[in-house]
């Protein structure tokens, strides 16, 4: 049933309740049994054990497990007990990776918990004609509830009676100003949530007035419950990096199987013993698997998380670090994200003046009088601790009080100068408030409210000029209030509205707005320069939203601004056609936000959604990356988001994008660095089997290169500084290969280089020493050293010498440690024996070193002739 369109008598009849008596305890118990408790149903959570084992579904992790099993098989076959450290090391990496993933997920899914925490604990209810205070979980549809300022609404309810009622609904609707409620109002069926003024909603707070209402929805049937359902239904989408690494893992697995099958066929045709063929195939399989890649990528992402913390951005899911760098669309909430979430008096006009004055700290005397009288006619207050101001009360009133304070008129002082002796409180019928102040031997009457309501009451003032100012301010989305006054000889014994609110003189108009953040305009400009489309999505009115969007540069010539009603009338196909032109969506629901996000995703864009309210949570979860505000943001939004901005600064998003792009670039460097070795290892083993019928490297040696020698330089590459020109690039396409922009060429080139020099070294060592062990020693030295040296080539697509080649201190240290480990294996006799190596004559070590340095000039030449390209716009 759509309650906001119904008459109160129809609703009461449908719910079978007498508003003067309420439900009986027996009837309430029956309904509680039928409908369930007034609480949110949580999605069944995974146990820690389930989360742990879920980590093993990743293809790369499965390949690692297979590698461990293969390595165990080798160790058992070779009968070398000490070689069990290899599979143990692989399994340790697998387990650590799973534990890290489990801990990250365990911190996730806080949205529903936060929603539950927002539920109130007690409610005032009328049962069997008596007022009772009950646990809010025991509320049922049909209960008559009583509300007053300070209460949190316990369930969705239809207003039966209200007096000057205002409800703070920003977390649900996105509006920064409390919504005025009216029990007698008629509301259209398609009215958005923020316009349903005859209803109050679960989880929202009453800021002013009193009301009696009948509960119409409880638990998961409330608007808050509907958002909880959306959060339950919306699954976390995979990030581009997750998809690409999963695809890479599949390809590597297929390549390993094909290569192993080829080796078996060649070996069988050549008449080799099956066990020997199996051992070569095992070496080939191990060589095809970059065992350290998942763990190293996780470490690089963790480094990115630490960097982002310094930039005031907290990351909840590791793979989400790089996703923001891929963002091509940022859908942002307005209130509290692009704006300050605080009404501010920005302009004022005094009667008998010609101009609208911008409010600062040096207002002219007529404007000072206007601000003074306006502040006297306010109940809101502003308290100060040092320079920090705390606004208490209605935001429009505190905006006036704060403006007066900035102009040397603190409310306490002017209140002592002109003490209040009587008042007529604001109500939604009159839409004005009146206060009476003692002024010497006379009394001063001040009336504040909507100009349309004050105009008929005024006998003095330039109404034509005031109407022109009102139109101008309203067109710029300012919230306008008028102030009028008169003096009386004395306060009547029984003052009435008619006596006080008549024969007034217009003092002037004040205009206020929730202003844009100063830094947001520059952030939007930077986003556009980086090829990112900013989109405003808000629950506020379209005129207000459009005005803010124009000031920020989001809404430009040719762009569109539409309402939630217009959006609801569009099919998905129509939305897909128009989505690129629409820059502002106003008065939208949580479902609308998800539709917008998914429309952009269908257009192939990587979508970031920012927001702070409960109403943003489902879209935050549906987006490729959700970004919540840390200060003003609700726990619900933070729990649904991938990232939280601790300073609530929209400009921080730009820095996060920059860091995300830099992290993705570093991950590409790591992937290229590690895969170059893997490709060469596969080719070396396969070609040696094809031509020489023997393995040039043992599985133990391959594992040492993959897991130990290469890991530290790879991690150090992940700490590379972000390219200073990275924000001049367009966002990478959603389906862009991780090997784009020359990375595939670079990997293939280095793979062929390493293969050539390794096989050359293998043949040199074998022939010189007359044994395959000599060849393997040369091959091991060349491949491990070449990879370490090549780490410097991977720092940039530009020439290594275009900047300081040793500028990455982490890489310098990592290379030094790797060299020490290589020397340990090659020259220390006990370790040398374990790894199946031998001592060589000195000149062969020099030959090996010379061959290992070949990648440096080759890659410099490749960069110079354009085989490896630096990405440009």
Structure keywords:
8-stranded mixed β-sheet, 873 residues, 17% strand
Provide an overview of this structure.
With 873 residues, the protein is an alpha/beta fold. 49% of the residues lie in helices and 17% in strands. The chain has 34 helices and 25 strands. An eight-stranded mixed beta sheet has the order 8-25-24-23-9-20-22-21, sandwiched between helices. Strands 10, 11, 14, 15, 16, 17, 18 and 19 form an eight-stranded mixed beta sheet that branches. Strands 1, 2, 3, 4, 5, 6 and 7 form a seven-stranded antiparallel beta sheet that branches.
Distance between the termini: 54 Å
Shape: elongated
Biggest beta sheet attributes: 8 strands, mixed
Number of helices: 34
Radius of gyration (Å)? 35 Å
Low-confidence regions: 108-112
Quickly give the structural class. Answer: alpha/beta
Helix fraction bin: 40-55%
Percent strand: 15-25%
Mean pLDDT: 84
Q: Give the spatial strand order of the biggest sheet.
A: 8-25-24-23-9-20-22-21
Number of strands: 25
How are the elements arranged and paired?
Layout: H1 8-15, H2 25-35, H3 48-54, H4 59-78, H5 85-106, H6 111-118, E1 122-127, E2 130-135, E3 144-148, E4 156-168, H7 170-173, E5 179-180, E6 199-200, E7 205-217, H8 223-233, H9 240-269, H10 274-288, H11 293-310, E8 313-315, H12 320-326, E9 329-332, E10 344-350, E11 357-358, H13 365-376, E12 381-385, E13 388-392, H14 395-406, H15 411-417, E14 420-427, E15 432-439, E16 442-449, H16 451-454, E17 458-460, H17 463-475, E18 479-488, H18 497-500, E19 504-513, H19 518-529, E20 533-537, H20 542-552, E21 560-563, H21 564-568, H22 572-578, E22 582-586, H23 590-602, E23 607-611, H24 617-622, E24 625-629, H25 635-640, E25 643-645, H26 650-691, H27 699-709, H28 711-717, H29 743-769, H30 772-793, H31 809-827, H32 829-834, H33 842-852, H34 855-865
Parallel strand pairs: 9-20, 9-23, 17-19, 20-22, 21-22, 23-24, 24-25
Antiparallel strand pairs: 1-2, 1-3, 3-7, 4-5, 4-6, 4-7, 8-25, 10-11, 10-19, 12-13, 14-15, 15-16, 16-18, 18-19
């Amino acid at each position: 049933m759509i309650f906001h369109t119904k008459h109160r008598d129809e609703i009461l009849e449908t719910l079978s309740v007498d508003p003067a008596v309420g439900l009986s305890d027996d009837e309430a118990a029956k309904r509680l049994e039928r409908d369930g408790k007034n609480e949110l149903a949580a999605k069944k959570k995974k146990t820690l054990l389930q989360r742990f084992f879920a980590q093993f579904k990743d293809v790369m992790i499965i390949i690692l497990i297979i590698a461990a099993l293969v390595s165990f098989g080798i160790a058992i076959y070779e009968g070398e007990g000490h070689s069990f450290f290899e599979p143990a090391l692989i399994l340790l990496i697998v387990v650590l990776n799973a534990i890290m993933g489990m801990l990250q997920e365990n911190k996730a899914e806080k949205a529903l918990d936060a929603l539950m925490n927002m539920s109130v604990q007690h409610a005032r209810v009328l049962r069997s004609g008596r007022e009772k205070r009950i646990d809010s979980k025991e509320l049922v549809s049909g209960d008559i509830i009583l509300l007053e300022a300070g209460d949190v609404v316990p369930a969705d309810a239809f207003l039966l009676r209200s007096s000057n009622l205002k409800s703070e609904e920003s977390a649900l609707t996105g509006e920064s100003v409390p919504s005025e409620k009216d029990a007698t109002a008629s509301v259209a069926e398609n009215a958005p949530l923020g316009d349903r003024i005859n209803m109050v909603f679960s989880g929202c707070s009453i800021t002013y007035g009193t009301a009696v209402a009948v509960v119409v929805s409880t638990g998961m049937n409330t608007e808050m419950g509907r958002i909880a359902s959306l959060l339950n239904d919306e699954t976390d989408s995979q990030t581009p990096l997750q998809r690409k690494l999963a695809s890479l893992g599949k390809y590597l697995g297929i390549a390993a199987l094909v290569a192993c099958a080829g080796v078996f066929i060649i070996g069988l045709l050549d008449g080799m013993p099956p066990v020997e063929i199996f051992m070569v195939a095992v070496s080939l399989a191990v060589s095809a698997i970059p065992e350290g890649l998942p763990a190293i990528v996780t470490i690089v992402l963790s480094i990115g998380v630490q960097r982002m913390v310094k930039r005031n951005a907290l990351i909840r899911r590791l793979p989400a670090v790089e996703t923001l760098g891929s963002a091509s669309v940022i859908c942002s909430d307005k209130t509290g994200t692009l704006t300050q979430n605080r009404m501010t008096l920005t302009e004022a006009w005094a009667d008998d003046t010609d101009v609208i004055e911008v409010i600062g700290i040096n207002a002219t005397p007529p404007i000072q009088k206007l601000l003074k009288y306006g502040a006297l006619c306010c109940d809101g207050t502003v308290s100060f601790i040092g320079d920090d101001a705390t606004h208490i009360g209605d935001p429009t009133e505190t905006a006036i009080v704060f403006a007066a304070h900035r102009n040397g008129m603190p409310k306490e002082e002017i209140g002592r100068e002109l003490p209040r002796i009587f008042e007529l409180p604001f109500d939604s019928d009159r839409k004005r408030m009146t206060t009476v102040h003692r002024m010497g031997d006379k009394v001063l009457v001040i009336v504040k409210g909507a100009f349309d309501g004050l105009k008929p009451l005024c006998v003095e003032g330039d109404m034509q000029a005031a109407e022109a100012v009102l139109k101008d301010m309203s067109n710029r989305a300012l919230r306008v209030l008028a102030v009028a006054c008169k003096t009386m000889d004395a306060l009547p014994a029984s003052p009435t509205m008619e006596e006080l609110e008549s024969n007034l003189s217009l003092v002037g108009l004040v205009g206020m707005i929730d202003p844009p953040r100063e830094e947001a305009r520059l952030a939007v400009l930077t986003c556009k320069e980086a090829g990112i489309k900013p989109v405003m999505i808000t629950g506020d009115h379209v005129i207000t939203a459009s005005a803010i969007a124009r000031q920020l540069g989001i809404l430009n010539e040719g762009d569109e601004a539409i309402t939630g009603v217009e959006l609801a009338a569009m099919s998905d196909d129509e939305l897909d056609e128009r989505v690129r032109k629409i820059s502002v969506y106003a008065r939208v629901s949580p479902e609308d936000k998800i539709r917008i996000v998914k429309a952009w995703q269908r257009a192939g864009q990587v979508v970031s959604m920012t927001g702070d309210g409960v109403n943003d949570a489902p879209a935050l979860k549906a987006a490729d990356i959700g970004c919540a505000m840390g200060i003003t943001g609700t726990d619900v939004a933070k729990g649904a988001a991938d990232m939280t901005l601790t300073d609530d600064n929209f400009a921080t998003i730009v820095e996060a994008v920059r860091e995300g792009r830099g992290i993705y670039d570093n991950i590409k460097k790591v992937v290229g660095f590690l895969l170059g070795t893997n490709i060469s290892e596969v080719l070396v083993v396969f070609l040696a089997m094809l031509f020489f019928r023997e393995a040039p490297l043992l599985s133990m040696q391959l594992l040492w290169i993959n897991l130990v020698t290469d890991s530290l330089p790879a991690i150090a590459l992940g700490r590379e500084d972000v390219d200073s020109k990275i924000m001049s690039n367009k966002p990478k396409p959603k389906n862009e290969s991780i090997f784009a922009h020359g990375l595939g060429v670079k990997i293939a080139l280095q793979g062929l280089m390493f293969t050539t020099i390794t096989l050359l070294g293998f043949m040199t060592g074998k022939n010189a020493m007359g044994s395959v062990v000599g060849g393997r020693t040369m091959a091991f030295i060349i491949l491990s050293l070449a990879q370490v040296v090549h780490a410097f080539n991977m720092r940039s697509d530009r020439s290594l010498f275009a900047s300081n080649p040793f500028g990455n201190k982490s890489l310098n240290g990592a290379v030094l440690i790797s060299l020490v480990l290589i020397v340990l294996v090659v020259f220390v006799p006990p370790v040398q024996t374990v790894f199946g190596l031998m001592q060589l004559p000195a000149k062969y070590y020099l030959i090996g070193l010379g061959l290992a340095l070949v990648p440096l000039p080759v890659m410099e030449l490749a960069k110079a002739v354009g085989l490896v390209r630096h990405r440009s716009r």
